[in-house]
Specification:
48% helix, mainly alpha, two-stranded antiparallel ribbon, flat, 2 strands
Length: 77
Amino acid sequence: MRAFVEGVGLLGPGLQGWPAARRVLSGEEPLRSASTVITASELLPPAERRRTPVSVKLATWAQRLVEASRDLVAMLQ
């Protein structure tokens, strides 16, 4: 079996995305307690964004991360 990692994402209390989390995890910056902010996708109409459950917000966040990673990989090739 072969597996490839095309991108890394991290979201949690005080860790808003990989760039910020990397600095905290490497000890460059201290962890600052903060709420986790998960925004709904702009692809959804405003009324749907307001009603979107957390599970859907997380899924769309992950999908945006994958798409951004693919764009970055394509630019680097």
